[in-house]
Amino acid sequence: MDAASSSSSSSAVMDYGDEPHVLAVDDNLIDRKLVEKLLKNFSCRVTTAENGLRALEYLGLSDDQQTSHKPTVSKVNLIITDYCMPGMTGYELLKKVKQSSILKEVPVVIMSSENIPTRINKCLEEGAQMFILKPLKQSDVKKLRCYLKHRS
User: What residues have CB less than 8 Å from 9, skipping those under 6 apart?
Assistant: First the structure.
């Protein structure tokens, strides 16, 4: 489901039952569906967004949202985002998330089809938990499991 049409609760309460909630951000529909399928195989609840701006809207961080609507608790346990997207790169999304007092503790994983060491290092230095080369594989999702534990 896309963030814009998410039917999940918009409550900012971190009560996900047994399912960690992951926000998957990618401008490529096929990559988004692949990420969603692999995460659902690990019993994750997945919300998708087609770009960084949509992700920020879903997270309550977009510039045009009123401060009264800002969440006090993160609605997601993990953000996984593509690096190369139009409008806002995954790196720019990472920086916005890490600047947020509410979301800075949420693990962010960056994906890219390009293996560029300077890009990888830049993302890790900015606070990304991991940098994964596309296409995402089941073995990559297994590595993410430690970040999918509920944070208290």
Answer: none
In the predicted structure, residue 88 carries a pLDDT above the cut 70: yes
pLDDT tens digits, one per residue of 15-68: 446 689 999 999 999 999 999 999 999 899 999 999 999 999 999 988 765 454
Token pair recorded at residue 41: 């195989």
63: Cβ contacts below 8 Å, ≥ 6 apart? none
C-beta of residue 119 within 8 angstroms of C-beta of residue 83? yes
3-state DSSP of the chain:
CEHHHCCCCCCCCCCCCCCCEEEEECCCHHHHHHHHHHHHHCCCEEEEECCHHHHHHHHCCCCCCCHHHCCCCCCCCEEEEECCCCCCCHHHHHHHHHHCCCCCCCCEEEEECCCCHHHHHHHHHHCCCEEEECCCCHHHHHHHHHHCCCCC
Q: Does residue 1 surpass a pLDDT of 50? A: no
Q: Which whole-number Å values give the CA distances from 85 to 31, 65, 88, 111, in the listed order? A: 12, 22, 6, 11
